[in-house]
Amino acid sequence: MDVEAVLQKVLQRIRPTDEERAFVEGLMRELKSLAEETIESRGLDVNPYFVGSLAKDTYLAGDHDVDLFLAFSPDTPLEELREKGLELGKTIAERLGSYEIAYAEHPYVRARYKGVKVDIVPCYDVESWRDVKTAVDRSILHNRWVLENLNGRNDEVRLLKRFLKGINAYGSEIYIRGFSGYLAEILIIRYGSFLEVLKNADFMLRQKIIDPGNWLKHEYEIAMRTVRREAEADRPLIVIDPVDPRRNVAANLSWERYGVFYFKAHQFLENPSEGFFFPRGQKRGNYLSELRRKGTHLVTLVFGVPDLVEDILLPQLERSARGFEKALSREGFKVLGWNVGHDGSKAFIMLEVDRREREKVRIKPGPEFFTERGQDFYRKNERVWIIGKRLFAEKTVKEDIAEVILELLAKNQVAMGKSVRENIRDAWIMLDYVPKELEDEAYLFLSREKWNLKG
Fold first, then answer.
1. DSSP string, 176-244
2. Which of 39, 73, 325, 366 could form a disulfide with 391 if both were Cys (CB 3.0 to 4.6 A apart)?
3. Predicted confidence band at 49 (pLDDT cuts at 50, 70, 90)?
4. What is the pLDDT of residues 313-359, one digit of tens each?
5. pLDDT averaged over the chain?
6. Residue 312: is its pLDDT beyond 90?
7. Strand order in the sheet with 357-368
């Protein structure tokens, strides 16, 4: 199937239908009118804005998360914005149904209405990057810039977003470190189409700097500070935010996620198929067969986790896995790879190691050589010597890796994430065995199918 035919088939699945559009537009009208009524009833000077993919019409079919921003005047003190913004958000959310308070730079309200997630976020009503006071303020400027520059290429953005989701490289959250929706929109505006973005996967990496706002011409010093800072941090891409020269839109994009995009872009251009956008489930296999094939061993720690958001929990688990890797390497075990994850209440750290046991020499002090016990000690040991009146012997013992881990934990010799440290101390340690619910995860880890670029 040629590439255009593939893209048309994908678009039929990801482009919202007329009925869906009508639902979304009706929902946004209702929410705006409800927000305006509530603002008016409280006598506040606040403007409600929709931001995000719904407001820009770059959302995928079936993906209807709403971002409603409550924009306060820039001269409002920050504490007042937080307090009144949260109260206003709660009043709006109470009329929608259930809600909860979530936390980012400041608290905001997360509600559900007609089966759709609605985030109600207080911010400042800014006109320029110079007025930005909190991280969320830019969202209104982002929205405006995309709407002014997209020029009808909304479906091209949809194709790029769905492709990035399909190859598991979408989302700038710290536990994914992929492409954000805004970055996808910028790349489409910069290169013109989904296929051109893919064709430029190599060029982007070599060019390194993308400056759609032309800041290197208008605000050279500030933009160069951003470039130098991000180059020093060794980012794969530096995309100077077209609405703020101080920010790299691709700051959270990791080399691993860019690498996946790089290879998959080449593979798609050579052999286009819908499978890149809608991959089949990952391969399944037997983790014990993988261990036999490789001759390696698997250590799995399973433990309860504190109630942390994903952005905090995953980096803490990764830090702990790296801590075990270093500590076990110091103890003579070779760690061939690690994997972490969680399923709500339980988290795990998996370590693939070269062996289960190590031989360790210990010096064993014995009794005085002229006693009966001394004669017995002499007969039982291989290498025996005298220091003063006492006998000593060298003894080789086998130590199990689980014992070594317990000792390391007891002596506080593993660097771990501070929020999960106490939970890991109480972990179940399993050797060459995982609970049933982790069998597929263990196979994907040991076979490297979890990260296989050729899969």
1. T--B-HHHHHHHHHHHSSHHHHHHTHHHHHHH-EE-TT-HHHHSHHHHHHHHHHHHHTT-S-EEB-TT-
2. 366
3. very high
4. 889 999 999 999 999 999 889 999 999 999 878 999 999 999 998 87
5. 92
6. no
7. 357-368, 390-400, 383-387
- How far, in Å, CA of 434 to CA of 285, rounded? 14
Of 150, 164, 118, 62, residue with least CA distance to 172 = 164
Residue 59, helix vs strand vs coil: coil
Range of the domain at 328: 287-357+400-446
CA 209, CA 5: separation in Å to the nearest integer?
33
The structural domain count of the chain equals 4
Whether the pLDDT of residue 270 is over 80: the answer is yes
Say which DSSP state 246 is in. T
Q: pTM for the whole thing?
A: 0.84
- 197-232 as b/e, with b when 16 or more CB fall inside 10 Å? bbebbeebeeeebbbbbebbeebeebbeebbeebee
pLDDT digits (tens, 9 = 90+) for 223-239: 999 999 999 999 999 99
For residues 405 and 390, membership in a common domain is answered with no
Query: Per this entry, what is the length of the chain?
Result: 455
In one-letter notation, the amino acid at residue 448 is R
Please say if the pLDDT value at position 105 is more than 80.
no
| CATH label of the domain that carries residue 292 | 3.30.70.590
Per the domain annotation, does 141 fall within a domain?
no
Residues 328 and 412 grouped into a single domain: yes
Is 387 in the same domain as 409? no
Same domain, 392 and 411: no
Cα–Cα distance, 216 to 222 (Å, whole number): 8
For residues 90 and 191, membership in a common domain is answered with no
| The residue type at 426 | D
Q: Which residues pair with 48 in a beta bridge?
A: 70
